[in-house]
Design brief:
four-stranded antiparallel beta sheet; 39% strand
């Protein structure tokens, strides 16, 4: 049995988990999220914990067992405390500024400023001009938005300029050898 799948998910106070046929809905202080369950995986609520069980010992059901448990646990964490990804911008003249209503204005060395609009449920925080914090309840969406911002100007290997995750190590290359 899956070690991840068999561990129960504790539901904190203020969070409601509803299971209706093949849809799990989690609602809490940060919003409501729902997900369709794959076939072969059953979810039930036992008091203040949620238990994920699989229908059989087939390989496909084994694979979905731990995945489903982790996705539901991520939903519970998202509606209680939320998820964040931090990005840092490195380069002369590279900076970020919050725009109007969910828009992030980026200066990344192009001839024009880049305007990045946040999808629904995601907010941007800019504590310093070289740091961007992406916040939201859905872990997948927060990670994808951070990856899309990073993709605008990936860190290059010679000077290290670009957008990177906080703490990301960029492999540096040697420049031209002098004569």
């Amino acid at each position: 049995m899956s070690r991840i799948g068999r561990s129960p998910i504790s539901v904190p106070a203020g969070v409601e988990v509803a299971v209706a046929s093949d849809v799990v809905t989690v609602s809490g202080p940060n919003g409501t999220m729902s997900r369709t369950l794959p076939s072969g995986v059953n979810v039930r609520r036992d008091g203040d914990v949620v238990v994920v069980e699989r229908a059989s010992e087939e390989t496909a059901h084994k694979a979905l067992h731990g995945l489903t448990r982790t996705l539901i646990a991520n939903m519970v964490t998202g509606v209680t405390s939320g998820w964040t990804k931090e990005l840092e911008i490195i380069g002369v003249g590279y900076r970020a500024a919050p725009g109007a209503s969910g828009v992030l204005d980026l200066a990344l060395g192009f001839s024009h400023p880049v305007r990045f609009t946040a999808p629904e449920g995601v907010t941007f925080d800019v504590p310093t001009p070289t740091r961007v914090v992406v916040k939201g309840a859905d872990k997948e969406v927060v990670g994808q938005v951070a990856a899309n911002i990073r993709k605008l100007r990936k860190p290059e290997p010679y000077k290290g300029k670009g957008v990177r995750y906080l703490g990301e190590r960029v492999a540096r290359k040697a420049g031209k050898a002098a004569k």
